[in-house]
Fold each of these.
Amino acid sequence: MAIDDIYTKGIADGWKVVDASTLKQDQTYEADVAIIGSGAGGGTAAEILSAAGLKVLILEEGPLQTAANFKDMNDARAYGELYQEGAGRATSDGAVAILQGRSVGGTTTVNWTSSFRTPPQTLQYWADTFALKGGGEADMAPWFAQMEERLGISPWAVPPNANNDALKRGADKLGWAAHVIPRNVRGCWNLGYCGLGCPTNAKQSMLVTTIPSALKNGAQLVHHVSVRKLQFSGGKVSGLSAEALGPDGVKRSGVNITVKARHYVLAGGAINNPALLLRSNAPDPHQRIGKRTCIHPVNLSLAMMPEKVEGYYGAPQSVYSDEYQWKHGATGPAGYKIEVAPMQPLLGSVIFGRYGEELKTGMAQLPNMQSMLALLRDGFDEQSPGGSVEIDDSGAPVLHYDFSDYMWDGFRRAYLSMAELQFAAGAKQVMPLHLDSRPYESWEQTRTAIGGLQYRKQRVPVFTAHLMGGCAMGEDEKLTVVDSDARFRHADNLSIIDGSIFPTSIGANPQLSIYGFACKNATKLAGVLKA
C-alpha cells in the first residue's frame, strides 16, 4: 500500500517551505507571528494562529523528514537524524540520558503516542503553589477534548502486545490498578516502531496534522535554521537573529537569517527555550529562567519470560499502572507511573546497559525479554525541585540535575514495584537495571538485592524523554516566567507555548498536556492579535 508523501504534494501545490541549508545569501523574513519550534506546542499554535488569518512563520532547527524517510524503520538512522544531538543529549554530568526530538514535528514525530490529560492533582498543585489561573480540571476539559478530537486520541482498542500484556497480567494478579493508554493514532498498523518516525502517517503528530494545516492556511516553514538570539528593547522583542545550518543539521552554513514579527512564540522545549532566553539576556529579575526544569526521571527493570515477548512489535505503550502514582497525594513520597519500553534492537541494547560478551549473550535473549519503566514525578516536593538550564561559553544549553535521598528512595520503591509485577506476570528472572545488579530468580531474592544496591549517580542508569519547566507559568511573579496565559512577563509581544511553562512534571506522558494548554493559550493569543 503506497503512503502519500504529504509534503511533496503540498509543496507542488504552493506550500511555502524553505530548506535553509540550500540558501546562498542572507535572508530577512517578516510575519505577524514567528514561532520557534514545530513540536506539540509550536505545531498547535501554528494551526490556530494561521487559521485566524495571521501570517505565521515557523522556524525549525531540525530537518523535514516524512514517511518516505521512515519506511526503512532503521534505528541508527532515525536516532542520528531525528533526535537532539544524535540521541546523545544528556545532563551535564552524563548521569541522565535525554531522548528529545529534533525535526519538523519535534518530539511528536518520534514519541510513542501515549496521550494523557494532565492529572487533576497536578493542576490543583499548580493553582495552589504557583497561583495558576484558568488551569483547573473543569477549565481545561474542553481544550483537552478539542485536541483529542483533532488528533484521534482515544484508548487503544487493539489487544496489547506481550510486552504490555505482562504489565496488565501482573497488575491483575496483584490487584493493582491498570488501564489502557490513549494513543494519538488513526489507522495504526501496529508496527511498533513509533520512536523512529511513523512510516504510515498513522501517528497524528504535528508533522502530519497541524503543520500541514498551517501551511494550507498560508504559513511558511523554514527548517535547518538555528535561532541564536532575541533582541529585547523597550519592553518588547524587536527581532531575532538566526543562522542557517548545513545539510547535516549541525554545521552552520554561514547564511544569516533575520526575522521581524509583531509577536514571537517560543516552542523549542524545556532545554532550548531557557537557553535562547539566556543567550538573549532576557529580563529576569527573580532569576527564574531555566529553573525548575523537570524530567520525569526514569529507571527500568528487565525480565526474562518463559514465552516469547518480542517487545519490538506492536504499539510501544498500551497499558499503564498508577498504583503508586498518587498513593500519598501530590506532596508525599515520590510517586511513579509504571509503563513499558519497546525493545527494538538498538534501544534494547542501550537499555540493557552491558557490553562485550555479556551484551552479546543478553541480546541473544531479546525475543523473551520484557521491560518495565517507572516515570518518577519531580517538582512536587522541595527535595525534588527539578534541574536548571544554563548555557556554556558557546551559548549551548547545559542541564544540571541532581538527585536527593527523596528521589533515590523513589527509584528504590519503583524497582521493587516493577520486579514484583514482573514476577507476578510469570517472569523466570528479573534484573533491575543497575550497574551492580544481575538477574535474580525469585521475588524474595530480588527484593533483598534491591535493598542492598547503591543509590547514586552513574550506578543507577536514568533516562528521560519528557522535558518540562524552565519557564514556569502562574501569577506568582517571584516563582514564574510567564503568566497564566503564557505571556512573558517582561516583553509584551513574547509568548511561550510548550511544555517549558509547566511548573512541575505532569505525572503522565506530557504531550496531551502540551496540546491542551497550547490550544487554550494560542486561541486567546489569536483573539488578542486579531483585535
Amino acid sequence: MNIQAFLSEKISVAMCAAGAPADSEPLVRQSAKVQFGDYQANGVMGAAKKMGIPPRQLAEKILEKLDITDVADKVEIAGPGFINIFLSPQWVAKQAEDALADEHLNVTPVEPQTIVIDYSSPNVAKQMHVGHLRSTIIGDASARTLSFLGHNVVRANHLGDWGTQFGMLIAYLEKKQNENAADMALSDLEEFYREAKKHYDEDEVFAERARNYVVKLQSGDEYCRTMWRKLVDITMQQNQVTYQRLNVTLTEDDIMGESLYNPMLAGIVADLKAKGLAVESEGATVVFLDEYKNKEGEPMGVIVQKKDGGYLYTTTDIACAKYRHETLHADRVLYYIDSRQHQHLMQAWTIVRKAGYIPDSMSLEHHMFGMMLGKDGRPFKTRSGGTIRLTDLLDEAQERARALIAEKNPDMDKDELNNVARVVGIGAVKYADLSKNRTTDYIFDWDLMLSFEGNTAPYMQYAYTRVASIFKRADIDENALTQPIALTQSHERQLALRLVQFDETIMQVSREGTPHVMCAYLYDLAQTFSGFYENCPILSAEDENTRQSRLKLARLTARTLKQGLDTLGIETVDRM
C-alpha cells in the first residue's frame, strides 16, 4: 500500500468536509524526525488563507472530520497548522505482513500505460564509451521500474545508423573486403572509423566514391544497403556483449535507429510547409518559433531541411515522436539524453505539437542528465586525454573488485571469486552513477565506489548477504514462519515502517525517473536494519513468537533490498 497516497486521500476528504475550497490539496510527506510523527500534512495554510480563517482553526476542523482511527495511534496539530500523524504499530505490522505475502511486495496496482523509453543510443562503427554509460543505465533502471509496476514498456535504442558518414564507411569496408581484411578491421571499430576518415580526407578518388555511396544508400541501392547492414550488425553484436555485462535489458529487437524514420522525413517537411509552419529561408526549409528568441529578440529559426536537401536531427526527432504516437501508441515517452540537448528537444517537440502530430494527452519528457567527471572536475578521460571505452572501464572495475574480494575471502574458489568480482565490480560502477541525482554532474572515483562503507553497491550487496545469511546459518524454512509480525520495540517499528514505504519510493522513481531516490531509500533501509539487528536479537529472541516476527522482518528486508537493487539492474550474491 502507498501510505502517502492513502493518507493524502483521507486528509483531502476531511478538508472538503471541513469547508476548505475544492481545489485544496494536502501535501503529505514522511517526517524527517520521529517527534513530528511518521507523516506530516501541510497545505492547510493555503486553504485557510482562501477561507479567511487562522490555519490552526482549519486544522482543528479537519481533525474532527478525519477518519483514520484504525490507522493512527495519534494525530496532532503542530506549529501554525501542520498535522502530524503517528501510525499504529498494529496497522504498520499488517502492511508488512501483506508485503511479505505478496510477490510484488504489495505495491499499489497501476493503470497500465504504454511507455516508450529512449536510451543508450550508440553510433554505428564506433565503440561505446563512458559517455554512453549514464543514458544506458539510468534509462534501463527506469525501464525495469516501470515494467515491475506493470506498464507496457517499449525500449527504444535510438541507434545512430544514418547520415553522410556512411558513404565513407561503406567505401572503406569495400576496400578492406577487397584486401581480405574486413573482419580484422571491424574487430576494432574505433580504428576502422579513424582509417575510413583518414582515407576520406587524403584520397580524393576515395572521397568521391564515398559521396556517391551516400546518394546510393539513401536511394535504396541494394549493394550499399547490404554493406550498411553489415556495419550495423557488427556494431550491435559488440554492443550487445557490453549490454549483457552491464546487466542491461536492451536486445537487438529494441533497435530503432535513425534509419527507421528516414522514409518519413520528406513527407513531414512537405506537411509542415502545407500547414504554414515551415517556410523557405535562404534556400533551406525553416520553422520559426515565437517561443524561442535569438539575441535580437526575433523568432528563432529551426532548420528542418538544408539547402542541399539533407535533413537534420530535428527532423528525425519530429518523425520519431510522430512514429511513437501513430505506430507504438505511446501514452508517455521518456528521453534519457544529456542536458546539453534540452533546447534541441524542446524545439522539436514544440513543432510536433504545433503540427498536431501527437495528442495533448501524450507526454514527452526529457529526463536529462549531467556529465561524468574525473577527480579534476573535467570530463572523465584516459590519462592521455582520450575517450575511455566502456568495455575497458568494466574490465578495470572487475579487476579492482576481484582484488578486494580475494583479500577478504582468501579461500574462495576461482569460479565463485570471478562471479562475485563481476557482480560487485559492475554493480559498483552502476550504483555510483545511479545513486547521484541524474540532473547533476558527478565525480568518478574508484576508491569511493568500491568502498564497503557508505552509500555504495558493495555496501548494499553486503547488506543483502548479511540478511540472507541469517536464514542459511539457522537452516530455517521460511514457510514455517506462522506467527504474526508484532512491533513491540522501537527498532522493530522503525524497520517495519521503512519496509512498507517501498511502495511510495518506487512510485516516485516511476514518475520522475530518479533512481537516486531508490538508492537513498535502500541505503536508509540497510542502515535501519543494522540498528534493528544490533538491538533486537533474532535467533536468540526471548520467545518463539518474537523470534518468528523478527525473522519475518528480516525476510522482508532481504526481499525488499533484492527487489530494489533489481530495479536498478544491480545483481546480488549470497556470499561476499
Amino acid sequence: MCGIIGYCGPKAASEMLLSGLKRLEYRGYDSSGISVGQQNSGEPHSSEATLSIYKKEGKIAALRSIVPQELPGFWGIGHTRWATHGGVTDVNAHPHLDCTGEIAICHNGIIENYMALKERLEKEGHQFVSDTDSEVVAHLVESFYTGNLESAVKAAVSLIQGTYGLLVMHAQHPNEIIGARNGSPMVLGVGEGEMFIASDVSAMIAHTKQVVYCEDGEVVRLTPQGFHVTDLKDRPIDKSIEGISWELEEMEKDGYDHYMLKEIYEQVDSIPRAMSGRLDDTQAAAVLGGLNMSERELLAVKRIVILAAGTSYYAGRVAAYLLESLARIPCTTELASELRYRNPLVEEGTLYLAISQSGETIDTLMALRELQRKGGRVLGICNVVGSTIPRESDGGVYIHSGPEIAVASTKAFTSQLAALYLFTLKMARMRHMAWPQGKRFISGLRALPGNLAQILQNAPALEALAQKYHSAESFLFLGRGINFPVALEGALKLKEIAYIHAEGYSAAEIKHGPIALINPSTPSFFIVPDDHLRDKVISNMKEIKARKGPVIALCTQGDQAVAAVADDVITVPPCDEEFTPFHMVLPLQLFAYYCALQLGRDVDQPRNLAKSVTVE
C-alpha cells in the first residue's frame, strides 16, 4: 500500500519522481503528489531554495497534467496514497507541509497516536489543513527543528507510535533528504552522483541496480554524493550495497493488454524457474539449501504451521493438505492477522512457514516476529529478494517468480505452490516416500509447464464462458480435498478484479447452508478433477442441477460423466491428483480476467486494493 520515492542528483527531480511513482502504481493508490526543491539561484548547490508542491487525487496521469513540464529543481520527494485517515481529496494527498511551508514529508504507514500528537501541536499553535494522520509528522519535525534536519526527524519519530516509511525535505537543506523506517519498506538506490530512496526497487530500476535495504529503527541522510545511516541514538550503521537481478524489461507489458494477462501466461516459465537447480534426480529429492536446517533438525519437526494472508494463505492451504498426505506431518494454515493477536502456543518441534509474495505483508511480518519472540523457528517463502520477511526469517525459499505488477496475484501463487511442493518432497523423502514415488513426483513437477501451455490454448473458451456469465451478480466456487483452496482462490480472483460477489466452499458443504442460495441466476463453478473425490463432487453437481442452478465444470479431458451433468465444461490435461491445483487455478484466473474485461474493470489496479499490504 502506498509508495514513496525521493531523488537528489543532477537531473530534473520532477521527472524522476513522476516516472518512479508510475512504476509504483501497482502497489495501489487513490491520489499522488510530489514536492520539488527549487534553488532560487538556479544552481544545484545554492543554499537558498523554495518547495513546489503538486498533488492530485486519481491516477498519476492526473498529477502529471498539473506539473509544469520544465519544472526546475534537483531534489524532491513523491508519494502515492492509499487512503486510511481522511477521504480521497487533493488536500489529503501527500506531500504534507509544516506551518512555514519549508518542510515537506511523505509517509507510508499509520500513526496510531496521531490524535494525541495533533492536540498537543494545536495547543502549541500549529494549524492543520488535512484530515490525515501523516500531517502531524511535518509539524512535529517543525517543532524540533533548530537547524539540523536529521536531528529534528529523529526527535519527531521517537514520539510516533505505529508504522512509518518516512521521507522529509527542507527548503533550507538543498539536495538533502532524510528517510526513516519502522514497519514500512524502504530501500536506497545508489547511482553515480545521484541517490534514490523508495518503498520498492521498481521505482528506481530504470536508473540503478545498486541498492541498500533499510531496517526498522534506521534513519538515513541522502545527498547526491551518497548516504549515511544511523539509528535513533545517532550510532552509525554500516550497510552493504546489493545488486538487483531483475531487468527493466521484465516490468513491461511486452505486448500484452494487461500485466495480469502477461503474468498468467508467464507461469509456463515462472514455475520451472522456481524449481531450477532444486531437483535431485539421483536421490529423487529436493535441494533447498536456504532453509538453514540440517537433516537432523528437519527430521525432528513434529508439526508445521503455515502463516499467510490472501492468495498466499490459499497456497498454504494446498501445501498443508499435501504435507499431511505425503510427508505425514500434521500441518495447519493460519491467517497471519489472527495468529498474531491470539497469543499462540509455540511448542517444541513446530516449524513455521511464512508466505508472502512481497515479503513486506505487515500481518505476516508481525506474526513472524511474535512467533520468533516466543522461540519459534520461522522460514520465509517470498518472491522479492531482499525484502523484510526473508531478511528476518530463520531461513527460507525464494520463489523467483520475477516482478508481479498486477495487484491480483497469479504467477506468484503457482510459484509459491512450486516451492511448497519442493519442500513437501524434501520432507516426504526423509520420512515415508519411497524412491520410485519421489521420481514420479519429480516427473509430475516437470510436466507442469507443458500442461499449462496446453491450458492456455483454451483461453478462447474461457473468454466465451465469461461473455456468457459475466452479468451474474453472485457465484459459488466448489471443490474438494486439495482443490478446496483452489475454489477459494477462484472466488477471490473474481471478487478482486471483476467486483462480482463470489464465495468458495467445499463441495461437501453445499448442503449445509449454501444450497439455499441456488437459483437460476447464480452459477456454481465446480472443480472436478479425476481424483478419489470425483464421484462425490458429481453428486454435488446433481444437487445443484436439481434446483435449476447453472453448473460450470472444470474437469479432466474426456470426462463424459461430468459433461453429462454440467451446462458448460472447461477441460484440462490429465495428471496425478496432487498436481491438479496447478491445472485448475489457471483457468479460474483467466475466467476472472475475461469477466473483468467484459465489465470494463481496471484489471491491473482494481479499486480499493493494494499489491503490498503494509498497514493493518
